């Protein structure tokens, strides 16, 4: 029986609430921070791109290690809760330092504080995702619980985006600093509430060794699609502020408004995709959402300077697609973890999530590591025809190709609702 079977929406809300605060620095870190350090701080596109790529390479070691450690913690000590608390303690000062750089900040400053922040993010995010899978084993309800978490996270992004609109006339250093302090103070409150009142869920026998599930073909298939789609999302994400500045010619207030619209419709999209996934296999719904994103990106090359309404429509439809990217794949991953436990008789839930987390980060690292040096090579600030076309291809062309590959991987994915139900019954008989 699910740990939430007799719980109230209050418990679900308390589980999802940390996602609201953890989302505050998401846009600054993954979308705005690279351009901020490259152009405002003055470290250069190529240097910052390589720095972020290097930071993500650290995750190749830290993610599987922290996932394995989380699986090794005895349940009585808080297998998922203890690393979340640890991540909060080291993440708070790192976030403040990274968002409040001195005027003469160096690449070394970015690398040191960035490494600490990403380590803290891993320590929180991997157990947090694994926690949901242990709280709700049901195929459909698991998607709903993930929807609660991701929807709450998007509300957090909307809150910060709205704040960005209100503070658009403030100095960018002030906006970054305010975001950091707001995250730290609010994060302490909501994470403490979740750790205190949300149950631990089903705690299986701890894992005995660190391992890569290379024989689990379902895992590798989802991992591949997850990485490719992550790269498809990462390229437009890291290029978003550059596109708005050099192609759309949008001022900071318009930029903040477009970001708000994008995430508003991602929030609206989550219940739509989750409802559809209640009657259709999750992987098919995810594929359909990627088709929607591809069809939308096709119109980007025809949007030019001042076409704010047209680009707003693009933000609406790509935002809707993002709602599926955030809510359905984590639930599919949890289903794969159940299959892994049945087939290979190991409880390595957080370890599996660590590889998915690593794939996400490596996709974002590859996105900035490819896009920024290439844009510097074509001299983006010159706004030549070559520079603009290169930006458009990176922003909208490559994502379409990548998403088509991800769709091909997932369309006939063999672990659907009926197959997962059989896996659950087999696991219950084993107990």
Structure overview:
This protein has about 425 residues and is an all-alpha fold. It has 14 helices and no strands. Helix content is about 80%, strand content about 0%. Helix 5 packs antiparallel against helix 12, helix 6 (about 140-165) packs antiparallel against helix 9 and helix 8 runs antiparallel to helix 13. It is globular and about 65 Å long.
Number of helices: 14
User: How is the biggest beta sheet arranged?
Assistant: none
The total count of strands amounts to 0
Mean pLDDT: 84
Give unreliable regions as ranges. 1-7
Beta-strand share of residues:
under 5%
Q: What is the helix content?
A: over 70%
The CATH topology? Growth Hormone, Chain: A
Give the C-level CATH assignment: Mainly Alpha
